[in-house]
Protein backbone atom coordinates (compact mmCIF):
# COMPACT_ATOMS: atom_id res chain seq x y z
CA UNK A 1 0.00 0.00 0.00
CA UNK A 2 1.13 3.49 -0.70
CA UNK A 3 0.43 6.34 1.69
CA UNK A 4 -1.04 9.74 0.91
CA UNK A 5 0.22 12.65 2.96
CA UNK A 6 -0.90 16.29 3.02
CA UNK A 7 1.83 18.80 3.76
CA UNK A 8 2.23 22.55 3.74
CA UNK A 9 5.50 24.02 2.53
CA UNK A 10 7.10 27.08 0.96
CA UNK A 11 7.02 27.61 -2.83
CA UNK A 12 10.74 26.77 -2.95
CA UNK A 13 10.29 23.53 -1.00
CA UNK A 14 7.37 22.54 -3.24
CA UNK A 15 9.52 22.98 -6.32
CA UNK A 16 11.90 20.15 -5.51
CA UNK A 17 11.36 16.59 -4.29
CA UNK A 18 14.56 16.63 -2.26
CA UNK A 19 13.13 19.58 -0.30
CA UNK A 20 9.58 18.41 0.31
CA UNK A 21 10.19 14.70 0.96
CA UNK A 22 11.95 15.41 4.30
CA UNK A 23 8.78 17.24 5.38
CA UNK A 24 6.69 14.21 4.35
CA UNK A 25 9.06 11.87 6.22
CA UNK A 26 8.96 14.02 9.35
CA UNK A 27 5.16 13.98 9.31
CA UNK A 28 5.14 10.17 8.99
CA UNK A 29 7.87 9.85 11.61
CA UNK A 30 10.05 7.82 9.26
CA UNK A 31 13.49 8.40 7.82
CA UNK A 32 13.44 10.02 4.38
CA UNK A 33 15.62 7.18 3.07
CA UNK A 34 12.67 4.81 3.63
CA UNK A 35 10.70 6.58 0.87
CA UNK A 36 11.32 4.69 -2.35
CA UNK A 37 9.00 6.55 -4.74
CA UNK A 38 6.74 9.57 -4.65
CA UNK A 39 4.41 11.56 -6.83
CA UNK A 40 2.30 14.67 -6.31
CA UNK A 41 -1.45 14.09 -6.30
CA UNK A 42 -2.62 17.63 -5.63
CA UNK A 43 -1.01 21.05 -5.56
CA UNK A 44 -2.60 24.36 -4.68
CA UNK A 45 -1.39 27.80 -3.65
CA UNK A 46 -2.65 29.63 -0.58
CA UNK A 47 -1.73 33.28 -1.15
CA UNK A 48 -4.06 34.80 1.43
CA UNK A 49 -1.16 35.80 3.67
CA UNK A 50 2.17 37.43 2.86
CA UNK A 51 3.97 34.13 3.53
CA UNK A 52 2.60 32.08 0.69
CA UNK A 53 1.92 28.42 1.41
CA UNK A 54 1.82 25.55 -1.05
CA UNK A 55 -0.49 22.68 -0.13
CA UNK A 56 0.76 19.38 -1.46
CA UNK A 57 -0.83 15.96 -1.35
CA UNK A 58 1.95 13.47 -1.92
CA UNK A 59 1.61 9.77 -2.62
CA UNK A 60 4.60 7.84 -1.36
CA UNK A 61 5.83 4.27 -1.29
CA UNK A 62 8.19 2.94 1.36
CA UNK A 63 10.52 -0.05 1.19
CA UNK A 64 7.85 -2.37 2.49
CA UNK A 65 4.99 -1.27 0.28
CA UNK A 66 4.09 -1.46 -3.39
CA UNK A 67 3.62 1.67 -5.41
CA UNK A 68 1.21 1.35 -8.24
CA UNK A 69 0.21 4.32 -10.28
CA UNK A 70 -3.39 3.68 -11.13
CA UNK A 71 -3.98 5.14 -14.55
CA UNK A 72 -7.22 4.93 -16.46
CA UNK A 73 -6.65 2.66 -19.45
CA UNK A 74 -8.07 3.66 -22.79
CA UNK A 75 -8.66 1.01 -25.40
CA UNK A 76 -9.27 2.28 -28.86
CA UNK A 77 -10.95 -0.39 -31.01
CA UNK A 78 -10.37 -0.96 -34.69
CA UNK A 79 -13.52 0.69 -36.06
CA UNK A 80 -12.62 0.83 -39.75
CA UNK A 81 -15.64 -1.28 -40.74
CA UNK A 82 -17.97 -0.35 -37.88
CA UNK A 83 -21.20 1.64 -37.91
CA UNK A 84 -20.48 5.27 -38.81
CA UNK A 85 -21.41 8.36 -36.82
CA UNK A 86 -20.89 11.75 -38.47
CA UNK A 87 -19.37 14.49 -36.31
CA UNK A 88 -19.13 18.12 -37.39
CA UNK A 89 -16.28 20.06 -35.76
CA UNK A 90 -12.90 19.13 -34.31
CA UNK A 91 -13.16 21.26 -31.18
CA UNK A 92 -12.90 19.49 -27.82
CA UNK A 93 -16.55 18.37 -28.08
CA UNK A 94 -16.09 16.78 -31.52
CA UNK A 95 -12.69 15.21 -30.79
CA UNK A 96 -13.69 13.71 -27.44
CA UNK A 97 -16.95 12.43 -28.95
CA UNK A 98 -14.85 10.73 -31.64
CA UNK A 99 -12.47 9.10 -29.13
CA UNK A 100 -15.34 7.83 -26.98
CA UNK A 101 -17.19 6.43 -30.00
CA UNK A 102 -14.06 4.48 -30.92
CA UNK A 103 -13.88 3.05 -27.41
CA UNK A 104 -17.51 2.00 -27.85
CA UNK A 105 -16.90 0.38 -31.22
CA UNK A 106 -18.37 3.02 -33.58
CA UNK A 107 -16.56 4.73 -36.42
CA UNK A 108 -16.39 8.54 -36.24
CA UNK A 109 -16.40 10.37 -39.56
CA UNK A 110 -15.39 13.92 -38.68
CA UNK A 111 -15.79 16.99 -40.89
CA UNK A 112 -14.00 20.24 -40.06
CA UNK A 113 -14.41 23.49 -42.00
CA UNK A 114 -10.89 24.61 -41.09
CA UNK A 115 -7.40 23.35 -41.76
CA UNK A 116 -5.04 21.03 -39.93
CA UNK A 117 -3.01 22.78 -37.24
CA UNK A 118 0.19 23.34 -39.22
CA UNK A 119 -1.71 25.16 -41.99
CA UNK A 120 -3.98 26.91 -39.52
CA UNK A 121 -0.91 28.45 -37.88
CA UNK A 122 -0.09 30.22 -41.15
CA UNK A 123 -3.58 31.76 -41.28
CA UNK A 124 -3.32 32.84 -37.64
CA UNK A 125 -0.04 34.61 -38.45
CA UNK A 126 -1.79 36.37 -41.36
CA UNK A 127 -4.47 37.73 -39.00
CA UNK A 128 -1.81 39.15 -36.70
CA UNK A 129 0.51 40.53 -39.38
CA UNK A 130 -1.74 41.41 -42.31
CA UNK A 131 -5.22 41.63 -40.71
CA UNK A 132 -6.50 39.01 -43.14
CA UNK A 133 -9.24 36.84 -41.61
CA UNK A 134 -9.98 33.56 -43.36
CA UNK A 135 -13.61 32.70 -42.57
CA UNK A 136 -12.77 29.01 -42.14
CA UNK A 137 -9.34 29.20 -40.55
CA UNK A 138 -8.75 31.54 -37.62
CA UNK A 139 -8.53 31.60 -33.80
CA UNK A 140 -11.93 29.87 -33.55
CA UNK A 141 -12.07 27.62 -36.61
CA UNK A 142 -9.72 24.84 -37.60
CA UNK A 143 -8.26 21.70 -36.06
CA UNK A 144 -8.80 21.62 -32.30
CA UNK A 145 -11.45 24.34 -32.44
CA UNK A 146 -11.40 27.47 -30.31
CA UNK A 147 -9.24 25.86 -27.64
CA UNK A 148 -6.11 25.20 -29.74
CA UNK A 149 -4.64 28.69 -29.60
CA UNK A 150 -5.71 29.51 -26.07
CA UNK A 151 -4.42 29.43 -22.52
CA UNK A 152 -5.57 25.84 -22.34
CA UNK A 153 -7.03 26.35 -18.90
CA UNK A 154 -8.53 23.06 -17.88
CA UNK A 155 -10.56 23.96 -14.86
CA UNK A 156 -14.28 23.74 -14.92
CA UNK A 157 -17.15 24.25 -12.54
CA UNK A 158 -18.36 20.76 -13.41
CA UNK A 159 -19.03 18.70 -10.30
CA UNK A 160 -18.48 15.45 -12.21
CA UNK A 161 -14.98 14.71 -10.87
CA UNK A 162 -14.82 11.32 -12.59
CA UNK A 163 -15.53 12.84 -15.98
CA UNK A 164 -13.03 15.67 -15.42
CA UNK A 165 -10.33 13.18 -14.42
CA UNK A 166 -10.98 11.13 -17.57
CA UNK A 167 -10.57 14.20 -19.80
CA UNK A 168 -7.34 15.20 -18.07
CA UNK A 169 -5.99 11.64 -18.33
CA UNK A 170 -6.80 11.53 -22.06
CA UNK A 171 -5.04 14.85 -22.62
CA UNK A 172 -2.08 13.58 -20.59
CA UNK A 173 -2.05 10.35 -22.64
CA UNK A 174 -1.84 12.51 -25.74
CA UNK A 175 1.14 14.53 -24.57
CA UNK A 176 -0.04 17.12 -22.03
CA UNK A 177 2.25 17.51 -18.98
CA UNK A 178 1.71 15.33 -15.89
CA UNK A 179 1.15 18.54 -13.92
CA UNK A 180 -2.39 18.82 -15.34
CA UNK A 181 -3.25 15.74 -13.25
CA UNK A 182 -2.47 17.39 -9.91
CA UNK A 183 -2.49 21.19 -10.26
CA UNK A 184 -5.57 22.79 -8.67
CA UNK A 185 -5.80 25.05 -11.72
CA UNK A 186 -4.25 23.08 -14.57
CA UNK A 187 -3.46 24.54 -17.95
CA UNK A 188 -1.59 23.36 -21.05
CA UNK A 189 -0.50 26.52 -22.88
CA UNK A 190 -0.84 27.53 -26.50
CA UNK A 191 2.64 26.31 -27.47
CA UNK A 192 1.87 22.77 -26.26
CA UNK A 193 -1.78 22.39 -27.26
CA UNK A 194 -1.18 21.82 -31.00
CA UNK A 195 0.94 18.72 -30.31
CA UNK A 196 -1.79 17.26 -28.08
CA UNK A 197 -4.53 17.93 -30.63
CA UNK A 198 -2.46 16.39 -33.45
CA UNK A 199 -1.89 13.30 -31.34
CA UNK A 200 -5.66 12.95 -30.74
CA UNK A 201 -6.20 13.16 -34.50
CA UNK A 202 -3.64 10.36 -34.97
CA UNK A 203 -5.46 8.16 -32.44
CA UNK A 204 -8.70 8.63 -34.39
CA UNK A 205 -7.05 7.84 -37.72
CA UNK A 206 -5.08 4.86 -36.36
CA UNK A 207 -8.31 3.34 -35.08
CA UNK A 208 -9.87 3.60 -38.53
CA UNK A 209 -11.88 6.79 -37.99
CA UNK A 210 -11.91 9.58 -40.58
CA UNK A 211 -11.04 13.26 -40.22
CA UNK A 212 -11.74 15.55 -43.20
CA UNK A 213 -10.41 19.11 -43.18
CA UNK A 214 -11.56 21.98 -45.43
CA UNK A 215 -14.97 20.32 -45.20
CA UNK A 216 -17.68 22.70 -44.18
CA UNK A 217 -21.16 21.53 -43.29
CA UNK A 218 -23.42 23.58 -45.54
CA UNK A 219 -26.73 21.80 -45.03
CA UNK A 220 -28.35 19.12 -42.96
CA UNK A 221 -30.76 16.91 -44.86
CA UNK A 222 -33.84 16.30 -42.78
CA UNK A 223 -36.74 14.13 -43.98
CA UNK A 224 -39.82 13.52 -41.86
CA UNK A 225 -38.05 15.12 -38.91
CA UNK A 226 -35.14 12.70 -39.19
CA UNK A 227 -31.56 13.38 -40.24
CA UNK A 228 -30.76 11.47 -43.43
CA UNK A 229 -27.54 13.15 -44.47
CA UNK A 230 -25.26 16.17 -44.53
CA UNK A 231 -24.13 18.41 -47.34
CA UNK A 232 -20.42 19.28 -47.27
CA UNK A 233 -19.01 22.30 -49.12
CA UNK A 234 -22.32 22.73 -50.96
CA UNK A 235 -21.50 19.70 -53.10
CA UNK A 236 -20.75 16.36 -51.48
CA UNK A 237 -23.63 14.52 -49.79
CA UNK A 238 -22.82 12.11 -46.98
CA UNK A 239 -25.69 9.90 -45.87
CA UNK A 240 -26.04 9.47 -42.12
CA UNK A 241 -28.69 8.86 -39.51
CA UNK A 242 -26.67 10.04 -36.51
CA UNK A 243 -25.11 13.47 -36.59
CA UNK A 244 -23.16 15.07 -33.74
CA UNK A 245 -23.24 18.81 -34.32
CA UNK A 246 -20.28 20.31 -32.41
CA UNK A 247 -19.63 23.52 -34.32
CA UNK A 248 -18.83 25.89 -31.43
CA UNK A 249 -20.23 29.29 -30.47
CA UNK A 250 -18.84 31.18 -33.46
CA UNK A 251 -20.52 29.19 -36.24
CA UNK A 252 -23.22 31.78 -36.86
CA UNK A 253 -23.94 30.33 -40.29
CA UNK A 254 -25.03 27.11 -38.56
CA UNK A 255 -27.57 28.94 -36.40
CA UNK A 256 -28.81 30.83 -39.49
CA UNK A 257 -29.12 27.59 -41.44
CA UNK A 258 -31.05 25.83 -38.65
CA UNK A 259 -33.27 28.89 -38.17
CA UNK A 260 -34.07 29.01 -41.90
CA UNK A 261 -34.94 25.29 -41.81
CA UNK A 262 -37.26 25.96 -38.85
CA UNK A 263 -35.30 23.63 -36.57
CA UNK A 264 -36.16 24.59 -32.98
CA UNK A 265 -33.62 26.89 -31.32
CA UNK A 266 -33.71 28.80 -28.04
CA UNK A 267 -32.22 32.12 -26.97
CA UNK A 268 -29.60 31.70 -24.24
CA UNK A 269 -28.05 34.12 -21.76
CA UNK A 270 -24.54 35.38 -22.44
CA UNK A 271 -22.24 38.27 -21.55
CA UNK A 272 -20.15 40.88 -23.36
CA UNK A 273 -17.59 43.52 -22.48
CA UNK A 274 -13.92 44.23 -22.97
CA UNK A 275 -10.52 42.65 -22.36
CA UNK A 276 -8.41 44.36 -19.73
CA UNK A 277 -4.64 44.12 -19.69
CA UNK A 278 -2.29 44.94 -16.80
CA UNK A 279 1.44 44.53 -16.39
CA UNK A 280 1.82 41.03 -14.93
CA UNK A 281 4.17 42.49 -12.30
CA UNK A 282 1.35 44.60 -10.95
CA UNK A 283 -1.05 41.63 -10.64
CA UNK A 284 1.74 39.60 -8.99
CA UNK A 285 2.44 42.34 -6.48
CA UNK A 286 -1.26 42.66 -5.59
CA UNK A 287 -2.00 38.94 -5.37
CA UNK A 288 1.22 37.83 -3.70
CA UNK A 289 1.69 41.00 -1.59
CA UNK A 290 5.24 41.42 -2.83
CA UNK A 291 7.42 43.73 -4.88
CA UNK A 292 8.79 41.03 -7.14
CA UNK A 293 7.31 37.55 -7.56
CA UNK A 294 9.41 34.67 -6.27
CA UNK A 295 10.90 32.52 -9.03
CA UNK A 296 9.06 29.56 -7.45
CA UNK A 297 5.61 31.06 -7.96
CA UNK A 298 3.56 31.06 -11.17
CA UNK A 299 2.26 34.28 -12.74
CA UNK A 300 -0.62 35.37 -10.48
CA UNK A 301 -4.25 35.11 -11.56
CA UNK A 302 -7.49 36.64 -10.35
CA UNK A 303 -11.18 35.97 -10.47
CA UNK A 304 -13.54 38.88 -9.90
CA UNK A 305 -17.30 38.94 -9.76
CA UNK A 306 -19.92 41.41 -8.59
CA UNK A 307 -23.64 42.03 -9.03
CA UNK A 308 -24.13 45.55 -10.36
CA UNK A 309 -27.57 47.06 -10.95
CA UNK A 310 -29.17 43.67 -11.34
CA UNK A 311 -26.56 42.07 -13.58
CA UNK A 312 -23.48 39.98 -13.10
CA UNK A 313 -20.18 41.70 -13.95
CA UNK A 314 -17.22 39.36 -13.91
CA UNK A 315 -13.75 38.55 -15.11
CA UNK A 316 -13.62 35.83 -17.74
CA UNK A 317 -10.88 33.58 -19.10
CA UNK A 318 -8.04 35.28 -17.23
CA UNK A 319 -4.70 34.68 -18.95
CA UNK A 320 -1.68 35.37 -16.72
CA UNK A 321 1.58 35.94 -18.58
CA UNK A 322 -0.39 35.91 -21.79
CA UNK A 323 -1.36 37.74 -24.95
CA UNK A 324 -4.53 39.34 -26.28
CA UNK A 325 -5.44 37.96 -29.69
CA UNK A 326 -7.78 38.95 -32.55
CA UNK A 327 -10.48 36.25 -32.48
CA UNK A 328 -12.76 37.46 -35.31
CA UNK A 329 -14.16 34.82 -37.65
CA UNK A 330 -15.07 37.12 -40.53
CA UNK A 331 -13.96 40.45 -42.00
CA UNK A 332 -15.37 43.64 -40.42
CA UNK A 333 -15.55 42.12 -36.95
CA UNK A 334 -13.48 43.14 -33.95
CA UNK A 335 -13.35 40.42 -31.32
CA UNK A 336 -10.59 39.93 -28.77
CA UNK A 337 -9.73 36.97 -26.57
CA UNK A 338 -6.70 35.76 -24.63
CA UNK A 339 -4.10 33.02 -24.68
CA UNK A 340 -0.90 32.10 -22.81
CA UNK A 341 2.09 29.88 -23.39
CA UNK A 342 2.74 27.00 -20.97
CA UNK A 343 5.23 29.09 -18.96
CA UNK A 344 2.89 32.06 -18.78
CA UNK A 345 5.93 34.26 -19.08
CA UNK A 346 4.82 37.29 -21.08
CA UNK A 347 4.97 40.61 -19.23
CA UNK A 348 1.18 41.02 -19.42
CA UNK A 349 -1.89 39.73 -17.57
CA UNK A 350 -5.18 39.90 -19.46
CA UNK A 351 -8.75 38.98 -18.73
CA UNK A 352 -12.19 39.42 -20.22
CA UNK A 353 -14.35 41.75 -18.12
CA UNK A 354 -17.96 41.25 -19.09
CA UNK A 355 -21.54 42.17 -18.23
CA UNK A 356 -24.55 39.88 -18.51
CA UNK A 357 -26.75 40.68 -21.51
CA UNK A 358 -30.47 40.86 -20.76
CA UNK A 359 -33.69 41.19 -22.78
CA UNK A 360 -33.53 44.92 -22.19
CA UNK A 361 -30.53 45.13 -24.55
CA UNK A 362 -32.23 43.22 -27.32
CA UNK A 363 -35.25 45.47 -27.95
CA UNK A 364 -33.91 46.65 -31.29
CA UNK A 365 -33.15 43.13 -32.44
CA UNK A 366 -36.51 41.51 -31.73
CA UNK A 367 -37.24 40.94 -35.40
CA UNK A 368 -34.51 38.29 -35.41
CA UNK A 369 -36.42 36.09 -32.96
CA UNK A 370 -34.17 33.61 -31.13
CA UNK A 371 -31.19 34.99 -33.05
CA UNK A 372 -31.59 38.46 -31.46
CA UNK A 373 -28.66 37.89 -29.07
CA UNK A 374 -26.43 36.77 -31.91
CA UNK A 375 -27.35 39.87 -33.93
CA UNK A 376 -26.58 42.06 -30.90
CA UNK A 377 -23.17 40.37 -30.64
CA UNK A 378 -22.56 41.11 -34.34
CA UNK A 379 -23.60 44.74 -33.86
CA UNK A 380 -21.26 45.13 -30.87
CA UNK A 381 -18.35 43.62 -32.82
CA UNK A 382 -19.00 45.86 -35.79
CA UNK A 383 -19.12 48.96 -33.61
CA UNK A 384 -15.72 47.98 -32.21
CA UNK A 385 -14.42 47.43 -35.74
CA UNK A 386 -15.65 50.85 -36.85
CA UNK A 387 -14.03 52.48 -33.82
CA UNK A 388 -10.70 50.73 -34.24
CA UNK A 389 -7.98 51.48 -36.74
CA UNK A 390 -7.29 49.87 -40.10
CA UNK A 391 -7.71 46.10 -40.22
CA UNK A 392 -7.40 44.44 -36.85
CA UNK A 393 -6.16 47.53 -34.97
CA UNK A 394 -8.40 47.45 -31.92
CA UNK A 395 -10.04 50.34 -30.05
CA UNK A 396 -8.50 50.86 -26.62
CA UNK A 397 -8.58 53.16 -23.61
CA UNK A 398 -6.55 53.40 -20.43
CA UNK A 399 -8.51 51.86 -17.57
CA UNK A 400 -8.79 54.90 -15.27
CA UNK A 401 -9.64 57.09 -18.26
CA UNK A 402 -12.48 54.73 -19.16
CA UNK A 403 -13.84 54.82 -15.62
CA UNK A 404 -13.60 58.62 -15.56
CA UNK A 405 -15.08 58.86 -19.09
CA UNK A 406 -12.15 60.74 -20.59
CA UNK A 407 -10.23 60.08 -23.79
CA UNK A 408 -6.75 58.61 -23.39
CA UNK A 409 -4.05 60.87 -24.78
CA UNK A 410 -1.70 57.92 -25.09
CA UNK A 411 -1.84 54.18 -24.59
CA UNK A 412 0.46 51.82 -22.69
CA UNK A 413 2.42 48.95 -24.24
CA UNK A 414 0.26 45.95 -25.09
CA UNK A 415 0.62 42.29 -26.03
CA UNK A 416 -2.04 42.68 -28.75
CA UNK A 417 0.03 42.22 -31.88
CA UNK A 418 -1.99 44.04 -34.60
CA UNK A 419 -1.91 47.22 -32.49
CA UNK A 420 -4.36 49.46 -30.63
CA UNK A 421 -5.86 52.88 -31.23
CA UNK A 422 -7.09 55.32 -28.60
CA UNK A 423 -10.89 55.43 -28.65
CA UNK A 424 -13.62 56.82 -26.36
CA UNK A 425 -14.99 53.39 -25.49
CA UNK A 426 -17.08 54.84 -22.65
CA UNK A 427 -18.91 56.80 -25.32
CA UNK A 428 -19.73 54.28 -28.03
CA UNK A 429 -20.20 51.03 -26.09
CA UNK A 430 -23.82 50.33 -25.06
CA UNK A 431 -24.65 52.16 -21.83
CA UNK A 432 -25.85 49.02 -20.06
CA UNK A 433 -22.37 47.62 -20.47
CA UNK A 434 -20.30 50.80 -19.99
CA UNK A 435 -21.96 51.98 -16.78
CA UNK A 436 -21.67 48.59 -15.10
CA UNK A 437 -18.09 48.12 -16.18
CA UNK A 438 -17.20 51.56 -14.82
CA UNK A 439 -18.77 50.70 -11.46
CA UNK A 440 -17.31 47.21 -11.57
CA UNK A 441 -13.72 48.38 -12.04
CA UNK A 442 -14.09 50.68 -9.01
CA UNK A 443 -15.43 47.85 -6.86
CA UNK A 444 -12.78 45.43 -8.09
CA UNK A 445 -10.19 47.96 -7.00
CA UNK A 446 -11.49 47.53 -3.44
CA UNK A 447 -10.84 43.80 -3.71
CA UNK A 448 -7.47 44.19 -5.44
CA UNK A 449 -5.88 47.52 -4.42
CA UNK A 450 -4.07 49.02 -7.40
CA UNK A 451 -6.16 47.16 -10.01
CA UNK A 452 -7.79 50.39 -11.22
CA UNK A 453 -4.81 52.14 -12.77
CA UNK A 454 -3.93 53.99 -15.93
CA UNK A 455 -1.09 51.49 -16.46
CA UNK A 456 -3.85 49.09 -17.49
CA UNK A 457 -5.70 49.25 -20.78
CA UNK A 458 -9.07 47.99 -21.97
CA UNK A 459 -9.30 46.65 -25.50
CA UNK A 460 -12.54 46.05 -27.38
CA UNK A 461 -14.44 43.88 -27.56
CA UNK A 462 -14.94 40.64 -25.69
CA UNK A 463 -18.14 39.36 -27.25
CA UNK A 464 -17.81 35.57 -27.53
CA UNK A 465 -17.93 34.45 -23.92
CA UNK A 466 -20.51 31.82 -24.73
CA UNK A 467 -23.17 30.99 -27.27
CA UNK A 468 -26.20 33.30 -27.41
CA UNK A 469 -28.25 30.40 -28.82
CA UNK A 470 -29.09 26.92 -27.56
CA UNK A 471 -29.91 24.02 -29.85
CA UNK A 472 -32.27 22.23 -27.47
CA UNK A 473 -32.03 18.51 -26.91
CA UNK A 474 -33.91 15.91 -24.85
CA UNK A 475 -32.52 15.35 -21.37
CA UNK A 476 -32.63 11.57 -21.60
CA UNK A 477 -31.24 10.73 -25.06
CA UNK A 478 -29.57 14.04 -26.05
CA UNK A 479 -31.36 14.06 -29.41
CA UNK A 480 -32.65 17.39 -30.64
CA UNK A 481 -36.15 17.97 -29.28
CA UNK A 482 -37.80 17.56 -32.68
CA UNK A 483 -35.21 16.29 -35.16
CA UNK A 484 -34.33 12.61 -34.73
CA UNK A 485 -30.69 11.69 -35.24
CA UNK A 486 -29.45 15.24 -34.59
CA UNK A 487 -27.22 15.45 -31.50
CA UNK A 488 -26.35 19.09 -30.62
CA UNK A 489 -23.12 19.03 -28.63
CA UNK A 490 -20.60 21.27 -26.88
CA UNK A 491 -20.45 25.03 -26.50
CA UNK A 492 -22.19 25.92 -29.75
CA UNK A 493 -25.22 23.90 -28.73
CA UNK A 494 -25.28 25.68 -25.38
CA UNK A 495 -24.18 22.71 -23.26
CA UNK A 496 -20.60 23.66 -22.39
CA UNK A 497 -18.52 26.70 -21.57
CA UNK A 498 -14.88 25.73 -21.91
CA UNK A 499 -12.45 23.09 -23.07
CA UNK A 500 -13.12 20.51 -20.37
CA UNK A 501 -16.90 20.92 -20.24
CA UNK A 502 -17.07 20.70 -24.05
CA UNK A 503 -14.96 17.53 -23.97
CA UNK A 504 -17.19 16.04 -21.25
CA UNK A 505 -20.27 16.86 -23.31
CA UNK A 506 -18.70 15.20 -26.36
CA UNK A 507 -18.14 12.03 -24.35
CA UNK A 508 -21.67 12.03 -22.92
CA UNK A 509 -23.27 12.37 -26.34
CA UNK A 510 -21.02 9.60 -27.72
CA UNK A 511 -22.00 7.33 -24.83
CA UNK A 512 -25.70 7.78 -25.57
CA UNK A 513 -25.10 6.96 -29.24
CA UNK A 514 -22.75 4.11 -28.40
CA UNK A 515 -25.34 2.51 -26.16
CA UNK A 516 -27.84 2.23 -29.02
C1 LIG B 1 -8.63 32.59 -27.89
C2 LIG B 1 -9.46 31.67 -27.03
C3 LIG B 1 -8.96 31.27 -25.79
C4 LIG B 1 -9.69 30.38 -24.99
N1 LIG B 1 -9.14 29.95 -23.81
C5 LIG B 1 -9.76 28.97 -23.11
C6 LIG B 1 -9.15 28.41 -21.96
O1 LIG B 1 -8.02 28.74 -21.59
N2 LIG B 1 -9.83 27.44 -21.28
C7 LIG B 1 -11.09 27.02 -21.66
O2 LIG B 1 -11.67 26.14 -21.01
N3 LIG B 1 -11.69 27.57 -22.74
C8 LIG B 1 -11.05 28.51 -23.47
N4 LIG B 1 -11.66 29.04 -24.58
C9 LIG B 1 -13.01 28.55 -24.93
C10 LIG B 1 -12.91 27.14 -25.50
O3 LIG B 1 -11.97 27.12 -26.52
C11 LIG B 1 -14.26 26.65 -25.97
O4 LIG B 1 -15.14 26.68 -24.87
C12 LIG B 1 -14.20 25.24 -26.50
O5 LIG B 1 -13.24 25.12 -27.52
C13 LIG B 1 -15.57 24.82 -27.04
O6 LIG B 1 -15.44 23.56 -27.62
P1 LIG B 1 -16.43 23.05 -28.76
O7 LIG B 1 -15.85 21.77 -29.24
O8 LIG B 1 -17.81 23.04 -28.24
O9 LIG B 1 -16.37 24.14 -29.92
P2 LIG B 1 -15.15 24.77 -30.69
O10 LIG B 1 -13.88 24.57 -29.97
O11 LIG B 1 -15.55 26.14 -31.02
O12 LIG B 1 -15.04 23.89 -32.01
C14 LIG B 1 -15.98 23.95 -33.04
C15 LIG B 1 -15.33 23.43 -34.31
O13 LIG B 1 -16.34 23.29 -35.30
C16 LIG B 1 -15.82 23.75 -36.54
N5 LIG B 1 -16.96 24.18 -37.38
C17 LIG B 1 -17.76 25.26 -37.19
N6 LIG B 1 -18.68 25.31 -38.17
C18 LIG B 1 -18.46 24.25 -38.98
C19 LIG B 1 -19.07 23.79 -40.18
N7 LIG B 1 -20.11 24.43 -40.73
N8 LIG B 1 -18.57 22.68 -40.77
C20 LIG B 1 -17.49 22.03 -40.24
N9 LIG B 1 -16.87 22.43 -39.12
C21 LIG B 1 -17.36 23.53 -38.49
C22 LIG B 1 -14.90 24.88 -36.17
O14 LIG B 1 -13.95 25.14 -37.17
C23 LIG B 1 -14.28 24.36 -34.88
O15 LIG B 1 -13.10 23.64 -35.12
C24 LIG B 1 -10.96 29.92 -25.42
C25 LIG B 1 -11.48 30.35 -26.65
C26 LIG B 1 -10.74 31.20 -27.45
C27 LIG B 1 -11.30 31.64 -28.78
Count of the domains = 3
Query: What sort of overall outline do the alpha carbons produce when their principal axes are compared?
Result: globular
Largest sheet: 7 strands, mixed
Find the CATH superfamily of the largest domain: FAD/NAD(P)-binding domain
Say what oligomer this is. single chain
Give Rg in angstroms.
Answer: 24 Å
Descriptive notes:
The protein is an alpha+beta fold and 516 residues long. The chain is built from 13 helices and 22 strands. It has helices at residues 11-14, 17-28, 92-103, 117-130, 161-173, 193-206, 252-260, 280-287, 372-386, 399-403, 425-428, 431-447, 499-514, and strands at 3-9, 35-46, 53-62, 84-88, 107-111, 210-212, 217-223, 226-232, 236-239, 243-245, 266-267, 271-279, 305-308, 311-319, 323-326, 336-339, 348-356, 394-398, 420-422, 457-462, 469-470, 486-488. The strands form six sheets. It has a seven-stranded mixed β-sheet. It has a five-stranded parallel β-sheet with strand order 6-5-4-10-22, with helices on one face. Strands 1-3-2 form a three-stranded antiparallel β-sheet. α10 links the parallel β18 and β19. α3 packs parallel to α13. The radius of gyration is 24 Å and the shape is globular. The site of flavin-adenine dinucleotide (FAD) has 43 residues, from α3, β16 and α13.
Kindly summarize this structure in a few lines.
It contains 13 helices and 22 strands. The protein is α+β, with helices and mostly antiparallel strands and 516 residues long. β2 and β3 (53-62) form a beta hairpin.
Strand and helix map with partners:
Layout: E1 3-9, H1 11-14, H2 17-28, E2 35-46, E3 53-62, E4 84-88, H3 92-103, E5 107-111, H4 117-130, H5 161-173, H6 193-206, E6 210-212, E7 217-223, E8 226-232, E9 236-239, E10 243-245, H7 252-260, E11 266-267, E12 271-279, H8 280-287, E13 305-308, E14 311-319, E15 323-326, E16 336-339, E17 348-356, H9 372-386, E18 394-398, H10 399-403, E19 420-422, H11 425-428, H12 431-447, E20 457-462, E21 469-470, E22 486-488, H13 499-514
Parallel strand pairs: 4-5, 4-10, 5-6, 10-22, 18-19
Antiparallel strand pairs: 1-3, 2-3, 7-8, 8-9, 11-21, 12-17, 12-20, 13-14, 14-17, 15-16, 18-20
Helix pairs in contact: 3-6, 3-13, 5-13
The structure holds flavin-adenine dinucleotide.
Flavin-adenine dinucleotide (FAD) binds at residues 88-94, 111-114, 139-142, 145-147, 149-153, 216-217, 246-248, 251, 254, 317, 325, 327, 337-339, 490-492, 496, 498-499, 502.
Amino acid sequence: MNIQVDIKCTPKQASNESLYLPIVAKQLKIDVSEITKSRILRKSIDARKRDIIINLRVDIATENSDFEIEKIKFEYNDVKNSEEVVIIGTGPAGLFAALRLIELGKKPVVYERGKPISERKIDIAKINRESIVDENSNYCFGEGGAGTFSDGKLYTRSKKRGSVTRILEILNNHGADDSILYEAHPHIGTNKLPRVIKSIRETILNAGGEVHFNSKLTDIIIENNKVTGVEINESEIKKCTKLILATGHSARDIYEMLYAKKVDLEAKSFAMGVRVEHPQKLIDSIQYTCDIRSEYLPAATYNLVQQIDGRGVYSFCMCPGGFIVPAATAPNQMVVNGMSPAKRDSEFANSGMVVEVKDDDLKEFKQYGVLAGMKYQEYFEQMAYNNGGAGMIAPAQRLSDFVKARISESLPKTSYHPGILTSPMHHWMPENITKRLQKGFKLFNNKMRGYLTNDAVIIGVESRTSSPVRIPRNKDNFEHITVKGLYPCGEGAGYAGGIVSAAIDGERVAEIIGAN
